Amino acid sequence: MPPKKDKAPELPIVVMGSGAVGKSCLAVQYQHSIFEEHDYDPTIEDNHRKEEELADGRTYCLNIRDTAGEPEFIGLLENAIEEGEGFMIVYSIIDKRSFEEVVGFMELIQKKKGGEEVPIMLVGNKCDCESERVTTTEQGQSLAKHYGITFFETSAKTGEQVKACFISIAERVKESMLKSGKIKDKNCTLM
Ligand SMILES: Nc1nc2c(ncn2[C@@H]2O[C@H](COP(=O)(O)OP(=O)(O)O)[C@@H](O)[C@H]2O)c(=O)[nH]1
Ligand SMILES: [Mg+2]
User: Fold this and answer.
1) Phi and psi (nearest 5°) for 60?
2) How many CB atoms lie under 10 A from the CB of residue 61?
3) Looking at the domain 10-180, which fold is it?
4) Which PROSITE patterns does the record associate with it (predicted)?
5) pLDDT confidence of residue 191
């Protein structure tokens, strides 16, 4: 029998943000490298899993929870935050309101996670729609800086920066979970 392969440690990442900003499309683009033009369908919840080799040469399983931005699903979102170890707050660069609503999602994470330091990333999606842009890159950067979190602009349509963005949050979630002992270092799992 071949030696039993170690199970890839799970990295639970929550994708959140207002409705119709492209959360579901980002998750699908990351997992399957496709963008399907579709009528807006407010997802309740969905899970995507993808294995990825990170900088330490070890394979991890990104467990991506796609959540609903609508206020009626707040209970589900709160559960997702409790189980999450890393967060992507997504807004659309062509929807001012979705940018203004970032603060509410930040506060929700802070409320649910208490003083715990968790990796959070701000993501301005739909950067392929440059002519309709209402939030500048600088505004996104400056909000991220204010919270001390990282910032990416992405397009779920063209795939621009989508993989880089998920890998970046995964690296930080991995570091944070190793530090807190929620996952074990590769060298400690031999025995
Ligand atoms: N042009 C463009 N449209 C997008 C992009 N991402 C999502 N969309 C469109 O925006 C709408 C909402 O996307 P969806 O992923 O369902 O949003 P969610 O509610 O945040 O999950 C859909 O009609 C998508 O086709 C993007 O990066 N560029
Ligand atoms: Mg959705």
Assistant:
1) -120, 160
2) 16
3) Rossmann fold (3.40.50)
4) RAB, RAS
5) 46
Q: Is 125 in the pocket of ligand 1 (CB under 6 A)?
A: yes
The per-residue pLDDT for range 33-72, each reduced to its tens digit, is 999 876 666 666 889 999 999 999 999 999 999 998 777 7
pLDDT at 36 (0 to 100) = 83
pLDDT digits (tens, 9 = 90+) for 100-120: 999 999 999 999 998 789 999
- What does each C-alpha distance from 89 to 5, 19, 99 come to in angstroms? 34, 12, 10
Greatest alpha-carbon span in the chain: 59
Residues in the chain: 191
pLDDT band at 3 (very low <50, low <70, confident <90, very high): low
With 0.85 as the threshold, say if the pTM is over it: yes
Q: Which of 29, 40, 93, 165 to mutate to test the pocket of ligand 1 (most atoms within 8 A of CB)?
A: 40
Contact 115, 35 (CB under 8 A): no
Determine if ligand 1 sits within 6 Å of the CB of residue 86: no
Ligand 1, residue 17: give the atom nearest the CA: 20
Instruction: Note the ligand closest to the C-alpha atom of 38.
Output: 1
Spatial separation of the C-alpha atoms in residues 178 and 118, rounded to whole Å: 12
